[in-house]
Amino acid sequence: MIEARNVNKSFGRLRVLDDLSLTIRSKRITGLIGPNAAGKTTLAKIILGLTKADSGTISIDGVRIGADDAYRARIGYMPQTARYPENLSARELFDMLIDLRRSAGPTDTELIGTFDFGGALDKPLRTLSGGTRQKVNAVIAFLFTPDLLILDEPTAGLDPLASGILKAKVLADKAAGKTFLMTSHIMSELDELADDIAFINEGRVAFSGAVTELKRVTRQSSIERAIAEMMKQGVAA
Amino acid sequence: MRVTAKVAGYEIRDVLRSRWLIGYTLFFLLVTDALFRFGGGGEKALLSLVNLVLFVIPLVAIVFSTVYLYHAREFIELLLTQPIKRRQVFLGLYMGLTLPLCLSFVAAVIIPFVMHRGMGNTQPGTFVALLLAGVALTMVFTALALLIVARTEDRMKGLGIAVALWLFLAVLYDGLVLLLVSILADYPIEKPVLALMLANPMDLARVALLLQFDVAALLGYTGAVLQKFFGRSIGVTVTSLALAFWVFGPLLAGMRAFQKKDF
After folding, report:
1. A145, B14, B55, B116: most buried, per Cβ within 10 A?
2. At a CB cut-off of 8 Å and minimum separation 6, what does A181 contact?
3. How far is A92 from chain B (nearest CA, A)?
């Protein structure tokens, strides 16, 4: 369980997170949605320790993050964009991460098999297409069998086949007891995957709860319509 | 330490495959070879090389490192999402940049030197001093690049600062010192001028090198003062210490900025 309490973050004069408090439940898929620049990526990065909050706390399973870097061993992260060292190949990149972490635990290389990389794994990363790099990112996120996965627009740039493979993997891993936090602009995708929705607007949580609850409150049949309805009414949970 | 070395190792593998670094190595290789081949005696060739080292190495080190680091931003982010410390990533980045740059410079100068060993009356000590000065300047300006990148979000701005800093230290600084000297010519200003010289790593390297050559004409004002002030050996010690400070100062400031930085 991730617990964010009164998290504030400003970049210069721009207030990105405004006293945000949010609970993300374990062993479920939480869809993090909101307009552009609502603070989704910033929240994800604060959980990862990439960005430091101005104030407030984040705790994972009751342990507050900040002092120690070891907690990140439990988190897999798939960023929105990815340009990695151009002259290394994907295989070298995987080997590097495995080597860096010298992880005692098992590695999950299932996606390397199911994504059709062809010969792309041994080519320099700079020559790969955006979609292929996104696949490389997905492999990295799952590589160390983390129990929390943060996916930032995971299917953006993926072809339908690869996107299907990734979604199947997400559902299978959820069934295996993993927690997911994913941002997406594709609401139909969240309809397929998400158990919970956290709707962030202007740095605050406008709605947080189960998808069924969201649909019930707004009396709509899909997440997209429900969110549209919510934005129209200006409802705050 | 282990993680730092690994980060550095992978970065070196990436940097060594960069066309820019290969071009840099070839440049020094060709120029050094040409200087030894056509530049008359070994001493003269070395002197020409000194001037090149003083201007080109800082420029390449700071620009290449700045561009590389901005370009590697997502890679740095990837590293930071792993359960490793920022300090380890930072030091790994530094070593991964400065080692290949030093290595390619040293290799590109040593190979022609060994090839043309027969000619000239070059003193090995002078040549070693040249190598050390090149290495020290590389280390200083890579550290400055890390500091700039850690503190500047906008990459064009960062690159601008890097080039401006080089221009300032390489060209403007000595001019300003001279101006100051001519204005205050009636006062005993040797010591302040000496302090000013210690504040510019390129001046430091120049003086440390030219103290080896006994060519007072090329020393410039600050150098002449230094030579008058110290003997050769003390001068070398002082300049070396000051250069070491120029490596660690920016490096520590950069590390502090890197640890607070939002990615």
Report:
1. B14
2. A2, A24, A30, A32, A44, A47, A148, A149, A150, A151
3. 9
More confident residue, B209 or A132: A132
Inter-chain residue contact A81 with B262, CB threshold 8 Å = no
Rounded to whole angstroms, the Cα distance separating B258 from A20 reads 26
Given pLDDT bands bounded at 50, 70 and 90, which one contains residue A237? Answer: very low
- What does pTM read for this prediction? 0.85
Q: Pick the range with the lowest mean pLDDT from A10-14, A28-32, B59-63.
A: A10-14
Helix spans in A50-159 (H): 90-101, 110-114, 130-143
Pull the structure tokens for residue A11: 């970049």
SS3 per-residue string spanning A131-189: HHHHHHHHHHHHHCCCCEEEEECCCCCCCHHHHHHHHHHHHHHHHCCCEEEEECCCHHH
pLDDT of residue A175: 92
SS3 category, A2:
strand
Is the minimum CB–CB distance between A217 and chain B shorter than 8 Å?
A: no
Which residue's structure tokens are 């098999």? A113
Q: Do A50 and B263 touch (CB under 8 A)?
A: yes
Q: Which amino acid is at B244?
A: A
d(CA B6, CA A180): 30
Comparing CA positions, the residue from B110, B130, B95 lying closest to residue B12 is: B95
* φ, ψ dihedrals at A198, nearest 5°: -120, 115
- Helix axis angle for B201-210 and B42-71, nearest 10°, is 160
DSSP lists the bridge partners of residue A77 as A150
Are B44 and B119 contacting, i.e. CB atoms less than 8 angstroms apart? no
3-state secondary structure of A235: coil
